Amino acid sequence: MLLPEYVLEGWSTSLPESFTPEQVIDLYADHGTHEQFHSEFKTDMDLTRLPSGKFDTNYLVCALAAVAMNLLRLVGQHTLHEPHSPVRHPAQRRRIRTVMQELMFKAARVIRHARQWVLALGANDGAFAVFERHWHQLDEAAGAA
């Protein structure tokens, strides 16, 4: 009497009837990945609270954040398996926060020398070498197009 004899699972969907139950289950199987990307968009891009009460302003902020997120994902994917790439563990992709912390946020000094301004980065920063190599690949690709 403690355990039920029958277990009933039900699914409700708004998909057209042309989808079979197996196709619906297959579509739902990867919902965790979607949730993870949504979480990254909100937390890593600091969009948990939108800046304005106006829809047009918030739409523009979300559109610009989507462009930034796509660029950061591009950098993260293209620099994942390069030599000297900062990797803490084997992974298939990097979170947006990790890309920003390890490849974008760099300590630097602005120096005035010989009537020129110079941005001095750490000489032993392997992550900058990875980013610089990737930047040159993108620059060459843009020049070829």
The helix count comes to: 5
Mean pLDDT: 83
List the helices and strands in order.
Answer: HHHHEEH
Largest sheet: 2 strands, antiparallel
Number of strand elements: 2
Textual characterization of the structure:
With 145 residues, this protein is mainly alpha-helical. It has one domain. Helices cover 52% and strands 8% of the residues. The protein contains 5 helices and 2 strands, in the order ααααββα. It has a two-stranded antiparallel ribbon with strand order 1-2. Strand 1 (108-113) and strand 2 (116-121) form a beta hairpin. Helix 3 (55-78) crosses helix 4. It starts with 20 loop residues before the first helix and ends with a helix. The model has no long low-confidence stretch (mean pLDDT 83).
Short account of what is shown:
The protein is mainly alpha-helical. Helix content is 52%, strand content 8%. α3 crosses α4 (96-104).
Secondary-structure topology with pairs:
Layout: H1 21-29, H2 31-44, H3 55-78, H4 96-104, E1 108-113, E2 116-121, H5 126-144
Antiparallel strand pairs: 1-2
Helix pairs in contact: 3-4
List keywords for this structure.
145 residues; mainly alpha; two-stranded antiparallel sheet; 5 helices; 2 strands; 52% helix; 8% strand
